[in-house]
Amino acid sequence: MSEYELWIYKDQTGFACTLSSLSSNNMLNIAKSTSPIAPTATESKDWTKASTPELQSGSEDESDVLDIKAKERRRHKQVKREEKQCREEVERQAREEAEARAREEAERAKAEAERKAKEEAEHQAREQAEKDRAEVQRRAAEVTARQRALVQEALKKRAREEPEAGPSGDRSGEVW
Asked: Minimal CA–CA distance to 14: which of 2, 38, 31?
């Protein structure tokens, strides 16, 4: 292996060159080099082939690979973004559906509570009406009992105060 084979360099543009074929000025400006360096007569045939367009086409292949990889990364990022957006959309829809179900459940619970309150109020009103009716009947019975007692008392009093009638209906003591 010659010393030239050990010192191959690819500059930033993808062109291959040997360090021995560069001038001292070019060695300082390797990064700025934009054209391939022609091989010298002292270089072997293998290195002549290395600096030919075959290597340059390999560099193009390398840039194509890099482009493909970059495109693949962009596509992958786009897929990730789309998946994230899809997940966020699904989560948003799930939240909205959960909120809607919660609202509906709250409305049903409120309607059920109102219905129960109304039924309870009606039940209490019926119970109160029955109590009132029973109270009225009890008072009526008391009034009726008092009236009967008064009538009985009045009849007894009248019977004591009235003179007893004689055998022919004679009422002695009556004045005409």
From this structure: 31
